[in-house]
Design brief:
This protein has about 250 residues and is of the alpha/beta class. The protein has 6 helices and 5 strands; from the N terminus they run E-E-H-E-H-E-E-H-H-H-H. It has 2 domains: about 180 residues, Diaminopimelate Epimerase, Chain A, domain 1, CATH 3.10.310; about 60 residues. It has a 5-stranded mixed sheet, sandwiched between helices.
Length: about 250
Amino acid sequence: MIFIGGLFTALGGSLGGNITKSNEKREKMDTSNTTYSNTWFVDELGWLGRGSKLRDGLESFYKKTGVQPLVYLAEYKSDYDFKNYDYMYAKAEALYDELFGSDEGHLLFVYFACKNDYPSLMDGKAFYICGKQTEVVMDENAKSILESSYDYYYNGDASISVEEMLAKIFTRAGKEIMKGPIRIRYVVIIIVSVVGAIVVISLLFKWWKARKAQKNKEAEDLERILSKPLETFGKSDVDDLKDKYKD
């Protein structure tokens, strides 16, 4: 079994920080060679409740990427050595083997709880492990998107539950991974459209302004004429005005 994965550091982030953008258009992973699992999460800590929101988030990731994730919250054990990355990563790999055997089409998110851990603390260590088959989707950029999504929500709104946080992580990561970059031609089309709209609006405004000025001038001319005493006009002028403005 060959794995790709890493450690979620979740250090120094904050809500509003950057989530890595996708740098290529990806195709959904072919799931014909992997086994669908009815298990979406394992909660040894009792932090997830019924987990319906989390399941929705994981299913969203799966439907977009073709990679089925499983979240595992592992209770604290006395042999955990959080200062030894290789040791803890090996535990995560062993857990993947235990859960999926030779099936390389899954993504395992595992959180190893620290001693006396609780939801608002979450001071343990989180790892993700991907089977080799998922590499068609979970390349370096995709992994960075997943990691930055974790960092964003882990360090974000402290009022949401662990379940909601994890659901948001996978929902957002799935969307970003499969979104693809904004192509230059689309940027050009957007710019041209915006410039065109500005030009049209500008021309309409100039036309409206000229039209309004003309109407104001006509109104002023009429008011000036009507305000003059009839005696200032010749008889023929008076007759002409009478004919012009009579009903």
